[in-house]
Amino acid sequence: MSLAIMVQGTASDVGKSMLVAGLCRIFAQDGQRTAPFKSQNMALNSGITPDGKEMGRAQIFQAEAAGIAPDVRMNPVLLKPTSDRKAQVVLMGKVATNMDAVTYHNYKPQLKAQIREVYQSLAAEHDVMVLEGAGSPAEINLRDRDIVNMGMAELAQCPVILVADIDRGGVFAAIYGTIALLLEHEKWRVKGVIINKFRGDVALLYSGIEQIEALTGVPVLGVMPWLNVDLEDEDSVVLERGKYDSAAVKDLDIAVLQLPYMSNFTDFNALAAQPDVRLRYVSKPDELNNHDLVIVPGSKNTLGDLRWLRENGLEQALLAHHRNHGAVLGICGGYQMLGQHIYDEVESGLGEMPGLGLLDVVTHFASEKTTTRVSGQVQSALPGLFAASSGAALQGYEIHLGETRRGENTAPFATFTSCNMRPCHHIDGAISADGRVLGTYLHGLFDSGEFTRSLLNALRLRKGLRPWEGENFDYRQHKEAQFTILADSMREHIDIERIYQIMREHQEQRV
Fold first, then answer.
1. What positions does the domain CobQ/CobB/MinD/ParA nucleotide binding occupy (predicted)?
2. Is residue 126 among the annotated active site residues?
3. Hey, what CATH topology would domain 252-464 get?
């Protein structure tokens, strides 16, 4: 019987995903076969497992922290919002249906047996399971059909650690209020509290910690400082808080259009980590000026986001950037928007719409979603900015509806020779004849260091700057170093031995 611990939060964005990743790394360092698990994830950041299944990016990077390959069993239910009230429901890595919030809430009880079976299957193969909740367990309006917080803790028969974010204020009220709203059998599962994102002298908290422990009967296991680790965020709320809007002066200034239904903004983490890049997310026309490259990202509602670009003036700003000889890159839905026309009878219900007209391609949506892990290389003899990238190795994944066909005035971007670990010959993407506009379906494009550095050096040369000297920035090594920093800090500031004790005591009670 595996050990297990569940990390729940007093609210969204309190740092649950990061602390789960840190625990995964710690337990793996200690020689334990460890796996993350989140029964239900609502996010537009998703990735693909080696066998072609779609799951949340948070569980993928937590699996990386544990040193194992992502497995769709780590995230059996993924909800991808398509509007304010509806979401695409992905079950065990494949699209099941689209539902509104009320319909899905009524549907959740039907998922419990499958979630229990999936969890038990994964737990049987590992020594330690680290579970993650969603939002807050004190959402009492959802309690009767909960499958991701206390409902999941009961299915897994595991103890819970509650995480509270002190940076947003009211941390003791959040801890007390959350525990007070739990039912007695739910309170029993809460074995510890972690106060997260603290800035300052921890001595100032001691009296408050003593009082909250007396009021709740739950010990505080540690106070994590504000930690500037460069790891993936699950929620796009970090963009609203300006996490990536660095004021530092860098040689290259790159903008990403912050679409309302932007998906996979984690595509740009590797780009933001480059030493000579300032990456900014822009949502207003007057913010788009003098950029070396503008990126149109993926979207879960391509036509809806394209219409938004037109209504708020960003389309004209982007076209003006292009007329001024600026470079443009589109990924997935962004690639589709750059074309001449999009025909959609599947995703948005908007029918058809002319594209931005920067690439000679046309997209027709289809009902079946492409979910593929791929590797290959950039085509040879590419024009313009991408000439130096010719032949560079690539790997990543595709998640999209529909097919995009190139016209005569574009060149293909890449050839993939491995698809879901099987040999293939798949041509991807399009580049304009002048070599200033690129579209591709490849998520994780900038994780490929050789391609990224060749593109950045081409942008540097356009500005009259020398190419960046030294080895290519290795984003995978960078992430490994960040996981180690996170784990070391957690060992320093959290009572990890007490967490082991909590798991063992609970295991003995189950036996």
1. 5-227
2. no
3. Rossmann fold (3.40.50)
